[in-house]
Specification:
Residues 99-173 form the Cation-transporting P-type ATPase N-terminal domain. By secondary structure, the chain is an alpha+beta fold. The chain contains 43 helices and 28 strands. The strands form five sheets. Strands 10, 11, 14, 15, 16, 17, 18, 19 and 20 form a nine-stranded mixed β-sheet that branches. An eight-stranded mixed β-sheet has the order 8-26-25-24-9-21-23-22, sandwiched between helices.
């Protein structure tokens, strides 16, 4: 699959442990064509050999090891498919080769003008800092504040309102030049429109500014301090002051401050998971062990974590020139896609602008044809535009988005881009990483096998759920081995902290074992002190075991005990006996078969399995004070006694299964994209519900039927697990077909570029895609996705900068909350727009009748503006506070091509049904007011030329009374007010029916939305104020009216309410019927979930 340049020119930061490439894959990406920063990459044979020797995972099953080989081979292959084009492009943008990992110490000293013992001179360091700049990733170029503010003032709706204001000013200028009496109206109208744009623009900018400030507080990628040696003096400096050639020191718990060539190391292990996806700690030593810099052990990478031990090395790359900086460049050019809500608002503005110009131009031409002056015709055009522009919608959209962003912030979701709120509600596919999002990012002991039984481990504080006998001799022996053969240690000063939350210095596996030991023994560190360590062989990838020798706690027993842990098959081959119920039994075929059964059972769960054994050393051969020598190996490493197995897993978060179920109910497809092993990925996916109970993969079906995999019809498999190697060899059509065929998908062992391609493939199928990430390598996918979601706790600055939303609690369930809020915002915006559109018809028809029938003008421009900005804006905004309907998470995601913010059914219903009723109400009240003053309806027809004649001072009404021009103008303003009140009374009914789309307003409740109730009361109060406040006739053309004229539109309001309740009943009873065709049944995206989207 060839990814377009717009996809690959990325921006911002980077992503997740699980979605990372393997060292072989990343090496192949960055090293192909010699473009790796240090250059050099081995041949295919060397790569495969390096991949096989690389793994340091203590307890990987045989299946895992085999999977690694596949993974390495896939990464090193040519790659004809989806990821090949991405990787080729990636290689072309990286810097020329270096080979620092292959140079001798003397060559490094010469190259960087430094000393391996004294470091750089202070003067040279200062010069290099000036030359290279700070050791920090260059943040993505931000948008200037004035540009942000200008965007708020010049969006789609804003432009339309600027045009309307300009037309009003033109009309004012023309009328002023002719001395027209209504000169001031158009000036007031223009100023009001300008004020609306500026005020709402300032409000929107303020909200964006606040979000930006929140995001700016997330700065944790670069270490605060680094230990450096310059001129022979050791001291600490800010890490961003490091330069190439600096001699630095690290210890367990430190973050690597730059790309460093290791010169000295003692038991140093680093966590490269955020860079390469390797979940196991990686040893660092001075030796060059591989031609590829990602495979060699003498390079430590910027921003990775030193887990244990100490190391000293030379800085060889800083800032953007580090590996993390190179990967960051992948995300520096991905262009931001328009959000769905932005597209919808643009679509709405296009419709409104088109209708406004169409009707305005039509009225202008008709007016000119029937004899109106150019000025009069221009006023008509301006009036139509003002009537059609929803002046209050801009404020409504801003308030809706801001309100929802605040709601999400209270639920641990920080929204960087307000429009991203609705995007999450439109999401039809969530591509989620595993570690830290679906899981707790904390390895935990899960199962134990001893005495030929598999036991479930209880890792709670009270140990009330422990299923095995803790007084068992075999358990005591196993517990002793896993406690003593462990280099992890608690940080000091945490006695009051619950054990599961304590900070541990050590790798993930040993951390899990230490915490489990602490929970079961009570004081693991004190227990160790009772068995002093006299000798140790750390874990290494050659032996695949860790061994230590201890003296016994009983001073009367002078023997030593040797304890060992490691890969189960490697540990077992060194044993000749097995401990069963406290007795040592010969390790015969029966027990070997029992071991293999348990091992495969635990490994099949996707858990990391370790084996444990021990041996008491005789006092005769190994007396007290015996000099154990790890080099000479003057102690036995075979003939040991096998104690048992312990399996560990990063457990799912407790809230995730329910969240995944909610997604499934809502028609949202959850796809796991992880860098972990396929077996582990599949197990976690099944445990959280991504792979549902009873779903089978092709491999599962083949195993059940006992047939080869290629004989199984892939369409019979509901679930599918695809690893990075398979994905690399897929062409675009195969990936699309897999996404279409298998509803439940898991991608394992994927690289960042592959994650990018998965996102793009889903988007090509019409899905709105959300992507989660937290590590260095996810930002291209976060940027490309319709909405990127970064982790607030574990996430790097790079990922946070690339994302649209940040989860402060790193919890997948928060995404589901965001989905619900996003759907709610779209629903409420749609309700608000429907409410806003309805009054366009009663605002437009007075001018239509005025021109065609020549009646006195029923409604003025200023009056329309008061409807838009004073009375209707509050109910419109109050709909943003409407609670979600009970079925909101039971509907499938909206189809962006069909379920638009404004579509034909909604427009037809708002305009030609509710709008028509409101127009009838307005004209009924208008003709009633005219008739009661002596102007019967038939007399009003054709009356306009005489009515507006300034010189005619004796115009007779139906009773023969004579009216001066001033009296007629007073009556005209009275009609304006009557028509205004009529619209407002009907709009009260309109806002009540807009509370729901398909449920009855009685089901939703009339008083749940208190803001709406207040808005209605406020609307009525404003109407009364405009009618009866002294001075209004002279300022805004509002007149006091008779109280009975308030009652005329009320039957029409009741008709609107009853009519809509009958329609909703039809939608609920007969979905898809004619009722639903013109109602929001189909047009509002209310179908029940079937598929995630048409093609997915």
């Amino acid at each position: 699959m060839t990814a377009p340049a717009s996809l690959l020119r990325s921006s911002g930061p980077l992503g997740d442990v699980d979605a990372s490439p393997s060292p072989g894959e990343l090496r192949d990406v960055l090293g192909r064509a010699g473009s790796w920063p240090w250059g050099g990459h081995g041949s295919q044979d060397e790569q495969e050999e390096g991949g096989q020797g690389r793994r340091q995972e203590e307890g990987e099953t045989g299946e895992h090891e085999e999977g690694d080989g596949d993974r390495e081979h896939g990464a090193g292959g040519a790659g004809r498919g989806a990821v090949g084009a991405c990787e080729s492009w990636t290689a072309s943008v990286l810097c020329p080769p270096q080979n620092d990992h292959q140079l001798s110490v003397a060559e490094l000293e010469q190259k960087y003008q430094t000393s391996a013992t004294k470091g750089l001179s202070a003067s040279l360091a200062a010069d290099l800092l000036l030359r290279d700049g700070p050791n920090a990733l260059r943040p993505p170029r931000g948008t200037p504040e004035y540009v942000k503010f200008a965007r708020q003032l010049a969006g789609g709706l804003q432009c339309l309102m600027w045009v309307a204001a300009a037309i009003c000013l033109i009309a004012f200028a023309i009328q002023a030049s002719e001395g027209d009496l209504t000169t001031d109206d158009n000036l007031y109208l223009a100023l009001a429109l300008i004020a609306v744009v500026v005020v709402t623009g300032c409000f929107g900018y303020y909200q964006e500014f606040k979000s930006t400030n929140i995001i700016a507080s997330f700065k944790n990628l670069v270490p605060q301090q680094a230990t450096v040696i310059r001129d022979g003096d050791k001291f600490q400096i800010n890490a961003d002051q490091l330069v190439v050639g600096d001699l630095v020191e690290m210890k367990g718990g430190d973050r690597v401050p730059a790309d460093i060539r290791i010169l000295q190391a003692q038991g140093c292990k680093v966590d490269n998971s955020s860079l390469t996806g390797e979940s196991e700690p990686q040893t660092r030593s001075p030796e060059c062990t591989h031609e590829s810099p990602l495979e060699t052990r003498n390079i430590a990478f910027f921003s990775t974590m030193c887990l244990e031990g100490t190391a000293q090395g030379l800085v060889v790359n800083t800032g953007d020139r580090t590996i993390i900086g190179r990967i960051a460049s992948l995300a520096s050019g991905v262009e931001n896609e328009k959000t769905p809500i932005a597209i919808e608002i643009e679509h709405f503005v296009d419709i409104i602008a088109g209708l406004a110009i169409l009707f305005g131009a039509t009225f202008f031409v008709v007016a000119m044809c029937i004899g109106y002056t150019f000025l009069r015709a221009m006023v008509f055009f301006m009036a139509i535009v003002v009537a059609y522009v929803p002046e209050g919608l801009l404020a409504t959209v801003t308030v809706c988005l801001s309100l929802t962003a605040k709601r999400l912030a209270s639920k641990n979701c920080v929204v960087k881009n307000l429009e991203a709120v609705e995007t999450l509600g439109s999401t039809s596919v969530i591509c989620s990483d595993k570690t830290g999002t679906l899981t707790q990012n904390r390895m935990t002991v899960s199962h134990l096998w001893f005495d030929n039984h598999i036991h479930t481990a209880d890792t709670t504080e009270d140990q009330s759920g422990q299923t095995f006998d803790q007084s068992s001799e075999t358990w005591r022996a196993l517990c002793r081995v896993l406690t003593l053969c462990n280099r992890a240690a608690f940080k000091s000063g945490q006695d009051a902290v619950p054990v599961p939350k304590r900070i541990v210095i050590g790798d993930a596996s040993e951390t899990a074992l230490l915490k489990f030991s602490e929970l079961t023994l009570g004081n693991a560190m004190g227990y160790r002190e009772r068995f002093p360590k006299v000798c140790e062989i750390p874990f290494n990838s050659t032996n695949k075991f860790q061994l230590s020798i201890h003296t016994l706690e009983d001073p009367r027993d002078p023997r030593h005990v040797l304890v060992m842990k490691g890969a189960p098959e490697r540990v077992l081959e060194r044993c000749s006996s097995i401990l069963i119920k406290g007795q040592e039994l010969p390790l015969d075929e029966q027990w070997r078969e029992a071991f293999q059964t348990a091992y495969l059972s635990l490994g099949g769960l996707g858990e990391r399995v370790l084996g444990f054994c021990q041996l008491y050393l005789s006092e005769k051969d190994y007396p007290p004070g015996y000099a154990f020598d790890v080099e000479a190996m003057n102690f036995p490493t075979s003939g040991l006694c096998f104690a048992g197995l312990v399996s560990m897993i990063d457990p799912p978060r407790a809230t995730v299964p329910d969240a995944v179920l909610k997604c499934r109910t809502a028609g949202i497809r959850v796809i796991m994209v992880t860098g972990d092993h396929p077996i582990t990925a599949k197990a976690i996916a099944a445990s959280v519900g991504i792979i549902s109970e009873g779903s089978e993969t092709v491999e599962d079906i083949a195993a059940r039927l006992r047939v080869p995999v290629d004989q199984v019809n892939r369409k019979d498999a509901r679930a599918c697990v695809i690893n990075g190697m398979q994905l690399k060899d897929m062409d675009p059509s195969e990936l699309v077909e897999a996404l279409r065929t298998h509803p439940e998908m898991v991608f394992a062992r994927t690289s960042p570029q592959q994650k990018l391609v998965i996102v793009e493939s889903c988007q090509r199928l019409g899905a709105i895609v959300a992507v989660t990430g937290d590590g260095v390598n996810d930002s291209p996918a976060l940027k490309k996705a319709d909405i990127g979601v970064a982790m607030g706790i574990a996430g790097s600055d790079a990922a946070k900068n690339a994302a649209d939303m940040i989860l402060l609690d790193d919890n997948f369930a928060s995404i589901v909350t965001g989905v619900e809020q996003g759907r709610l915002i779209f629903d409420n915006l749609k309700k608000s727009i429907a409410y806003t559109l309805t009054k366009n018809i009663p605002e437009l028809t007075p001018y239509l009748i005025y021109i065609t029938v020549s009646v006195p003008l029923p409604l003025g421009c200023i009056t329309i503006l008061f409807i838009e900005l004073c009375t209707d804006i509050f109910p419109s905004v109050s709909l943003a506070y409407e609670k979600a309907e009970s079925d909101i998470m039971h509907l499938r995601p909206r189809n962006p091509k069909r379920d638009r913010l404004v579509n034909e059914p909604l427009a037809a219903y708002s305009y030609f049904q509710i709008g028509a009723i409101q127009s009838f109400a307005g004209f009924t009240d208008y003709f009633t007011a005219m008739a009661q003053e002596g102007w019967f309806p038939l007399l009003c027809v054709g009356l306009r030329p005489y009515w507006e004649n300034h010189h005619l001072q004796d115009l007779q009404d139906s009773y023969g009374q004579e009216w001066t021009f001033g009296q007629r103008l007073y009556q005209q303003y009275t009609c304006y007010t009557v028509f205004f009140i009529s619209i407002e009374m009907c709009q009260i009914a309109d806002v009540l029916i807009r509370k729901t789309r398909r449920l009855s307003a009685f089901q939703q409740g009339f008083f749940r939305n208190r803001i709406l109730v207040i808005a209605i009361v406020f609307q009525v109060c404003i109407g009364c104020f405009l009618c009866y406040c002294p001075g209004m006739p002279n300022i805004f053309n509002f007149m006091p009216i008779r109280y009975q004229w308030w009652l005329v539109p009320m039957p029409f309001g009741l008709l609107i309410f009853v009519y809509d309740e009958i329609r909703k009943l039809g939608v609920r009873c007969c979905p898809g019927s004619e009722c639903g065709d013109w109602a929001p049944g189909v047009g509002w995206g209310l179908e029940r979930p079937q598929n995630t989207c048409p093609d997915l």
